[in-house]
Design a protein that fits this description.
The chain has 325 residues and is an alpha/beta fold. The chain has a single domain, classed as Rossmann fold, CATH 3.40.50.150. 30% of the residues lie in helices and 19% in strands. It has nine helices and twelve strands. The chain has helices spanning 7-12, 67-71, 77-87, 125-132, 144-157, 192-205, 222-230, 248-257, 285-303, and strands at 22-25, 28-31, 36-37, 39-40, 43-44, 115-119, 136-141, 162-165, 178-183, 206-217, 261-269, 313-319. The strands form three sheets. Strands 8-7-6-9-10-12-11 form a seven-stranded mixed β-sheet, sandwiched between helices.
């Protein structure tokens, strides 16, 4: 049995089409209704259309290290090449020149062994951050090349995490088996109908009282308004990677329709969709100023919650119903 498919993981996996039990059969995973899913380099592939893009097609060639410098460079080539796509435009200067992995600080308390599903994990930065605080993470993404990189980086950093290829609106887990679902800088690129489906799936797989924590862009953020103005305030085109902006009322309504309770919305960042104070050393002087301004604005919003209305990036936390004991 591949190391990825340990007994703990196999017990919670389910067919994404009918939620029935999966068993190993000749190296594949097969459900009770004969739906078969293969493993690619040890990673289960459940997505209907897995993404295969080892080199980003939306930008030019990546500057790479040569000779002795390349042999001494410990950063995975995929991460070096994809850093702008995964971490945002503030990281242009770092593309191809990363001196370390930009693993964010996990700001949501200790994991205490709880099972966490990271939707849209890419090369695993948030999964790794969660594992370091005691969560048992499972990263989910449609991009098989990113998942292979996540496996390599996790091994390199000595972090225990599992990864699988799946769709956000068809999660391959049994109902009521997951403690915590997380997603950062991902759902904003999906059609809103798919995000609604993803919320329903998250609600299904979470245990009673389980936590959903996702990030979404605010329609009325200062940078968000400028970006929407550039495209004439039209909606994102269906099936594209364009940003989808959400109002707080729409977010709350979507989660409540998916049977979530205790929806809380707070500021994540201003002037950027991905401001990470831990990555200051990787950014340009202008990028550093943006992150510092974002951090100061977020602290102000913590003290004066009405400022959250102008935040560009929002944290949304909600819970599933937990019956009284």
């Amino acid at each position: 049995m591949p190391a990825l498919l340990d007994d703990t993981l196999l017990r919670i996996l389910a067919c994404p089409r009918d939620h029935s039990v999966l068993t190993l059969d000749g190296g594949d995973l097969v459900c009770e209704y004969a739906h078969r899913f293969f493993l690619e380099e040890g990673i289960p592939v459940f997505a209907e259309t897995p993404r295969r893009e080892p080199i980003p097609l939306n930008m030019g060639p990546c500057p790479h290290f040569d000779g002795d410098e390349a042999r001494g460079h410990a950063i995975d080539p995929f991460v070096n090449d994809w850093i702008v796509n995964t971490n945002g435009n503030l990281y242009w200067r770092a593309r191809g020149r990363l001196p370390r992995y930009p693993i964010p600080d996990w700001p949501f308390g200790p994991g205490k062994g709880r099972l966490l599903v990271d939707i849209g994990c890419s090369w695993g930065r948030w999964s790794i951050a969660a594992a370091r605080t005691g969560f048992a993470p499972i990263g989910v993404d449609v991009h098989v090349d990113a998942l292979a990189a996540a496996e390599r980086v996790s091994r390199q950093l000595g972090v225990r995490a599992n990864y699988l290829c799946g769709d956000a609106e068809r999660l391959p887990f049994r109902s009521g088996t997951v403690d915590f679902v997380f997603s950062y800088s991902v759902l904003q690129h999906l059609d809103k109908s798919k995000v609604m489906g993803s919320f329903r799936e998250i609600s299904r797989i979470l245990k009673p009282g389980g936590v959903c924590l996702v990030q979404l862009p605010n329609t009325f953020g200062l940078l968000s308004i400028a970006q929407q103005l550039k495209r004439g305030f039209r909606e994102a085109k269906l099936g594209t990677f364009e940003m989808r902006y959400w109002t707080r009322a729409t977010i709350r309504r979507a989660l409540e329709q998916a049977s979530f309770l205790n929806v809380a919305i707070r500021a994540d960042g201003f002037f950027s969709q991905n401001p990470q104070l831990a990555d200051m050393d990787l950014l340009s002087p202008a990028g550093k100023l943006i992150v510092l301004a974002s951090y100061a604005s977020r602290k102000a919003a913590d003290a004066f919650p009405f400022l959250t209305r102008a935040a560009d990036s929002l944290w949304i936390e909600a819970q599933t119903f937990s019956p009284p004991r």
